[in-house]
Amino acid sequence: MNRNVIRNLIRGFYDVQKLRISTGNRIVANFHAKLGREPGQKIEEMDAESKKILEQLVDEAKLITTAIAEKRSHVDTVIKKHEGIIDDEIEYELVIDYLVLLETEERYTKTIEKAVKQFPIWQYFLSNVKGCGPIMAAVIISELDPHKARHVSSFWKYAGLDVVNGEGRSRKKEHLTEIEYVNKNGELATRKSLTFNPFLKTKLIGVLGPSFLKSKSPYSTIFYDYRNRLENHPKHKDKTRNHRKNMAMRYMIKMFLKDLWIAWRTLEGLPIEPDYAEAKLGLKHGGDN
Q1: How many structural domains comprise the chain?
Q2: How far apart, in whole angstroms, are the C-alpha atoms of residue 197 and residue 203?
Q3: Please, which residues bridge with residue 177 across strands?
Q4: Is the predicted pLDDT of residue 252 greater than 90, yes or no?
Q5: Could you report the per-residue pLDDT of 19-37, keeping only the tens digit for each?
Q6: What is the pTM for the complete model shown?
Q7: pLDDT band at residue 288 under the 50/70/90 scheme
Q8: Which of 77, 87, 93, 244 could bond 230 through an S-S bridge, CB–CB 3.0 to 4.6 Å?
Q9: Are residues 269 and 201 in the same domain?
Q10: Three-class DSSP labels, the chain
Q11: 53 and 149 together in one domain
């Protein structure tokens, strides 16, 4: 299967997921508004109470849909006789929209799972990584290419995990690089640009990393060991707890990418060359970074 196909699938999945989450939050916000209070939360942040409310609304919408089908009644008539949270047709339609998006997301998930299994790296390595499911594997397969990465540092740099002036790469102005491009007038110009793939970095650090910790993956041991070393290192002990956590998360993902790079290059019959820390400093997993 072409990598572009799985790239389109995974981007479509996240587009639908984002819309589904946003729709769910609007539904809950509407409920809070009926009670005269504002939820005041971001799209990704839905507390336990709000999730419970959304689940109840979804269950009620399904019951109303069944009643409409069975009694062949108009939606408004069924809602008037219904006892529950949903009390008007617009609210019902909003919940139905949410369910349609949820079903679409689930279809994407099943399709992606089938697609991922067609790539040898899934069977050879990724399927055995605890905390890395088919969706994250699809992100990795679609965004990384072992043929273009002669060194593991290429994976690190593309994922935005390299170091700039002693600190992790970010979107800071001083971390941008100047690139050439052709402007709308057809003239060669330059602009400041990121040196990494922000989508890939967000998924690796924001999704895969926490998944490793939650599932108690072997990679979580790397995280906790490294964080402990930072807490006891004179150079890093004065950093904030969150700063040390971010450093440990970044290091854990780098070690995962190193194992992935070795496995993928080996699978593809490509030469394996040691990274700088191993070749020059003799360091392996657990070494300073």
Answers
A1: 2
A2: 10
A3: 193
A4: yes
A5: 999 999 888 888 877 766 6
A6: 0.80
A7: very low
A8: 244
A9: yes
A10: CCHHHHHHHHHHHHHHHHHHHHHHHHHHHHHHHHCCCCCCCCCCCCCHHHHHHHHHHHHHHHHHHHHHHHHCCCHHHHHHHCCCCCCCHHHHHHHHHHHHHHHHHHHHHHHHHHHHCCCHHHHHCHHHCCCCCHHHHHHHHHHCCHHHCCCHHHHHHHCCCCEECCEECCCCHHHCEEEEEECCCCCEEEEEECCCCHHHHHHHHHHHHHHHHHCCCHHHHHHHHHHHHHHCCCCCCCCCHHHHHHHHHHHHHHHHHHHHHHHHHHHCCCCCCCCHHHHHHCCCCCCCC
A11: no
For tokens 């999945």, the residue is 13
**Containing structural domain, residue 10:** 3-115
pLDDT category at 286 given cuts 50, 70, 90 is very low
191 φ/ψ angles, rounded to the nearest 5 degrees: -155, 160
Same domain, 51 and 104: yes
6-17 core/surface letters (b: 16 or more CB in 10 A; e: else) = beebbeebbebb
Residues 6+ apart with CB under 8 A from 165: 174
β-pair partners for 191: 179
Name the CA dihedral angle for 129, 150, 4, 197, rounded to a multiple of 10 degrees: 80
* Residue located via tokens 């191993």: 278
